[in-house]
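Quick sanity check, ABC transporter substrate-binding protein:
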Amino acid sequence: MKLTHQLGALALALFTAGLAHAETIRIAIGTQDTTINCATGGVLIRELKLLEKYLPRDGKYKDAQYDIQWKNFTSGAPLTNEMVADKLDIGSMADFPGSLNGAAFDKAGKKSLFITVLSGSTQGSGNGIVVPKASPIQSITELRGKAISVPFASTSHGMLLRALKANGIDPEKDVTIITQAPEVAGPALQANKIDAHADFVPFAELFPYRGFARKIFDGSQAKTPTFHGSLVNAEFARKYPEVVTAFLRAAIEADRLFAAEPEKYSDLIEKTTGIEAEVAYLFHGPLGLQTRDFSWKPEYRQALKTSIETLRYLKRTDADLDVASFVDDRYIRAAFKQAGLDYEAQLKDYSKLPLNAKDVLTGKPITDFRRLGQVWVEGEPKVRHYATLEAAVADARRIEAGGKRIRVIYAQDYGSGIKLLARQAWFAQDGKGQLAAFLLKDAAATWAKANHAKVVDYASIQPAAKLASH
């Protein structure tokens, strides 16, 4: 009888253990598909089914079933609400909403962890200020007395406040700032109902690309780092650390794929999100506005501290988050190790996605990227690269004359190095026809004066041969 009882207890124990191993693990992930900085933590993982590739299948996960759930959001606040309510386990967002995420968890007696950067700029590129296309305003200093809209409590809100103050404009007295989401700001710009709009990735470039706005300020001018990254419910991470690491392995794989074929995956982003591939490439292609970077550089930690301070100033939170405990790099370090990558080396690497290309006309390697021109022709899978802007412009016009459509032309700002939409840029053109591109008209004028050149917009660029004959 005793032996029977013992065998029964053993059988029950084995059955219970089997149930534990066979548990269904929910992995509910909140994404921001149109915020393309989050692509490697969301849309690309989902569309390419990369998480399934890396989920653990051995040890305590040997018989586990996975219930992967995806939910898309247009901003970080509602995503955070669902994370706090335990409807989501992982979510991706920018530094400002990420800080509010940590504060919301703290207020609820819980904890979230910022586990990785996905993409960012230690310079501050990504955020920007635009005006209606026909506006006479050329720079931020001309916004005094104007009405500016911005998504409140966003990373672009913090950028706007700092940029105004840096240019001697009191945000509370000298301008009128109203809250406006990008989907509202777009029509407002088109109808000239606002003088300017400040926004985050990708709208300060998307609106100009769509033809109804013009960029007058890039976040890099404020020299304030900004980033998007992924957070996790700390309790989920404690219970399933290997799953969190698998999610980051999938993000690293998404980054590798994009780096290898940026045009292909920019097109995928467009098909999935509606954000044009030309804008995705502007941000994330070689020498792009943003750098996909999974390492917690000091500048990104500082960006979090700055966001917390700014949100307290805006009275959007009274939390005093400890960044040292809010940021947890254990999981990304584990993912790097599993992927055979050197995390410490990445911490020290500030380079953008490099461009290793030859001039499409001469076949010679391109080494000076200050005057780089790039042309994406409709129907061609790859962007064409040119050693000089004047060659790119001339070839683009030749291609158009032949009946083909040009998807986009890119230039690099001669001073800052940020990538520009050439058709919206300003240029200094010298007597030999050589071009240098600039975001701001004033910057082009300053360079032109020092280099015996004249300021032109894209439509006014003259052929090099014609200028050279004068």
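Posting the structure with no commentary besides this: DSSP finds 19 helices and 18 strands in the chain.
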